[in-house]
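ENTRY TYPE: paired fold submission
RECORD: A
CONTENT: sequence, then structure tokens
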Amino acid sequence: MDSIRTEDFSLQNTCVTIGKFDGVHLGHRLLLEKIYNKKQETGGKSVVFTFDFHPGMFFGGNEKLIYTDQEKEAILKACGVDVLIAYPFTEKTSAMEAEDFIREILVGRLGASFIAVGEDNRFGHKRRGDAGMLLRYSEDFGYGLCACRKVQYGGEAVSSTRIRRTILLGDMEEAGRMLGACFHIAGEVGHGKSLGKTLGFPTLNLVPPAKKLLPPNGVYMTRTTLPAGVFDGITNVGVRPSVGAQENPWVETFLLGYDGECYGEIAKVEFLHFCRPEQNFGSVEMLRQQIARDLDGCYSYFGHR
């Protein structure tokens, strides 16, 4: 997948969808399916158009992202997207009229022959652009349009806001059902303080960026993908209060059936189930005993042993 993070591009015969794609949830996946199927018919390229900064963050918001740019790119690539446009979101961009966005960006630079959007999609200055405007211009500019209704789950529309709230409650099963895949954290495996190895439970360590949304501090059943394969395991998210609390949370994962070295490799940790909140134990020995109990639960959950 090509990733373009500039205003300077020129494409032809593209099938385009527009949005923030924070989370790449069931609603987003429907749009991705639409442009993928259309590109198969036309022989063109499937394109996701988004912005290189979350709009809420640009205007001073502190809302964290379900998926980082790198995580989102990997998901979009797996969904068959050919090109990701992460358009610079500037004051000039935010002031662009909706009609100019259609004329200059969608048609002029992207060469859109087909556009798929959510029925509630808004774009352009003061969010004047919508599916109705895209439909009115479709005959003039010669592109096809699909305006998709919001995907429902549990009697409510699936949205990034709803998923974010669910993750913050620690309900990983529900979050996964709305995302269409398990919520995950991906990144380069770093060196920890080797406490896990000292206790007899060596872990791989990820330090998520500050803008990444994390579930509540605690212990989770997880599944981790490494270059060496996919491994069941158990993960602690938190600041490790029993051994000298740190300021920023770490993600520490013990893998069942893996004893290799993976420093510097990219790991993807999928969160399946919340087990218990992070606790402050009275001693390292008490911590070790609890980890052993957690590990027994992990073996039982995955059906090992």
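RECORD: B
CONTENT: sequence, then structure tokens
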Amino acid sequence: MKCKIIKGIVTVGVLTIMIVPCFTYKNEVDAVSTANTLGELKKELQDYKAKKSKALSDKKKTQSEINASKNAISVAQTEINTNRRKIEEAKIAIEKLNVEIKETEEKIKDVLVAHEVTSGDNNYLEYIFGASSISDFIIRYSMSEQLASYNDDLITSYEGKIEENEQLQIDLANREKDLDKKILDLEKAIDSLGNQVDAFDEQAIKFEAEVKSTQELIDFYVSQGCKDNEQLSTCVKVVSDTGFARPLKKGVRTSNYGYRWHPTQGVWKLHNGVDIGGNAEGTPVYSIANGMVGKVLKRQSCGGNMVYIYHTVNGVKYTSTYMHLLNINVKVGDMVTSETKIGSVGGTTTSTSHGGYDSCTTGAHLHLSLAKGWYGKDYQSYSTWISKLLDAGLSNYVNIPPYGKYFYSRVW
């Protein structure tokens, strides 16, 4: 791709950057008409509609995946909360069992001496011979044996429950780690899917703009009596002109054509025109020569409202481009003169930093580009348009004064 650069000494670092593709203000959909006849233009319209429909379908499908991931996170979080409650309950149960063990040991500690009879412990004999009768003696002996055995079984059971609860706490803690990882993975997936939704949404918006723009162009050609198999280049003639006028009654060049550090995106990019400041939003913007409106794009994410106008000046074809417009007063197919108000200066309220839709503007100004040929008719690719841009032409043809210099007239 051929990229024109500002004349002068360029550092090695910047020169390295300049080998990358040029794409400032590029329409991400790259939807440029290749139609030569009205019939082909109608087919393009159907293609745009199909692409828009697919983008909306993909957006809906991706949103469903996001919702499913959010539900899975909710289920996992609920399980974590439930498990944490179970862990607390297990801790309480362990404490309770420990207390019960101690209480049980206290209640029947005199019976435990039955296990110590072989050691000659008199406590056991005192308990047995403390009976008031033979029957009481037999009962006391039998109860001692049973209670001692029961106590062993009871303590063993308690200790088993304590082990179970302690293992439960370990298992639940490990499960929480697994669920935390699952939630983290799902959140990352949601972020990725969210970006896809935004991309599909942006595609749908841009294809909708192409649908509208193409439909307007079709309506225009039909109104001019063009037939489906008739060449568009011969069906409609663009009114010629002998020179260019400035697009504003006054202004100052605030940014040149060429590579620069992008003010909103923070990267080196080709600035494919000049910026003209010094005017408030709403200031009228005029066509720079007689011509025909070839394309109108609205609310683009980089460039905002844009108008492309075809000109024939002194027998040579040109395409002028106006970006960051606050509003647009023309439609595709309109014949314009150098006195036609095509829109007004935007760039502040349309900026994303002010709640707008245009991410490539930091304040009120007009972006103006001029290229040889009719972009979208004589050639279709963005790279060809870039190669045909007139970097010095805006001074030689439209006579926009150098950087920082004001002008106070549309003519010179």
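NOTES ON RECORD B: The radius of gyration is 41 Å. Residues 32 and 363 are 28 Å apart (CA to CA).
STATUS: closed
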